[in-house]
Amino acid sequence: MHQFPNIILYAIPFFIIAMVVEVVYTVRLNLKSYQTKDSVTSLSMGIGNVLLGFISKAIVIAAFYFVYDNFRLFTIPVTWWSFVLIFFADDFSYYWFHRISHQCRLFWASHVVHHSSQHYNLSTALRQTWSGGFYTFIFWLWLPLVGFHPGMILLQMSISLLYQFWIHTEAINKMPKWFEAIFNTPSHHRVHHGSNPIYLDRNHAGILIIWDKLFGTFQEELDEEKVIYGLVSNIKTYNPIKVAFIEWFFMFKDTFKHKISLKNRINYLIKPPGWKHDGTGKLSDDLRNEWLKNRQNELQQ
């Protein structure tokens, strides 16, 4: 059985050092990226994610090995070229997991945690879900099915998560143009964390930004539209328990409303955030279209 290191645990000291450096740097530039209560909440969410990860990771490993040992179509060897293949396969899986997590409320209920901060810094990268690890792995189940070893999959998933740490910063404006064209960057990911209508549900990339450009979800960071971080309706709490589960509460509250059909109960689980059974809700596309229309009217005046 192939053994691969848990690089996330080894990277924790690097995370701490990088955050200290960023705090000093942003204070000198007066960027005001950090707010104490917010950062403590983000760190608390990260610690909870790691602790619960010991349980959820066991489920993920068991699922991957079950598929690999019983249903795999091929056997892909653990060699240099298979690591190249899994780099792209994992990043493709991450893109669709991330995109669906913004389009399906059941997945948004866990992913919203990462977007709940109104600040953007390296501590925000650690604001991770406590529930997502137990079911979002389904987006990667096709990898052991086609023959990738579970150890390889878990290692590449960790590499992707590690890469995404450094892009949670305002200290870096733009990378070189060739890098911005291919890879996810702080600029691209600031857009993803924006609550501005033009930025909603854009730039779902993990490592490569090419998927967003290929599937029509790319949005450049605009000089004239400063990113406003957080949610369309912010949760306004620093309580880690509430941050972790408040959207689950609201989702089930909507699902079990009185006098709605079974179809609409299911729709509250699978429709995008903002959907309402009576048609009064607004989705991100609705908000974006309104913004674009208003912008066009302003330019014409």
Short description:
The chain is mainly α.
Label the structural class: mainly alpha
Series of secondary-structure elements, N-terminal to C-terminal: HHHHHHHHHHHHH
Q: Regions with pLDDT < 50 over 5+ consecutive residues?
A: none
C-alpha geometry: globular
Oligomer: single chain
Main pleated-sheet profile? none
Helix fraction by DSSP (H/I, runs of at least 4): 55-70%
Strand content: under 5%
Rounded average pLDDT: 95
Please give the radius of gyration in angstroms: 20 Å
Number of distinct helices = 13
Number of strands: 0
Distance between the termini: 68 Å
Detailed description of the structure:
This protein is mainly alpha-helical and 301 residues long. It is built from 13 helices and no strands. Helix 4 (105-115) packs antiparallel against helix 11 (240-255) and helix 11 runs antiparallel to helix 12.
Strands, helices and their partners?
Blueprint: H1 7-29, H2 36-71, H3 80-103, H4 105-115, H5 122-125, H6 142-146, H7 150-163, H8 177-182, H9 186-192, H10 210-215, H11 240-255, H12 262-270, H13 284-300
Helix pairs in contact: 3-4, 3-7, 4-11, 11-12
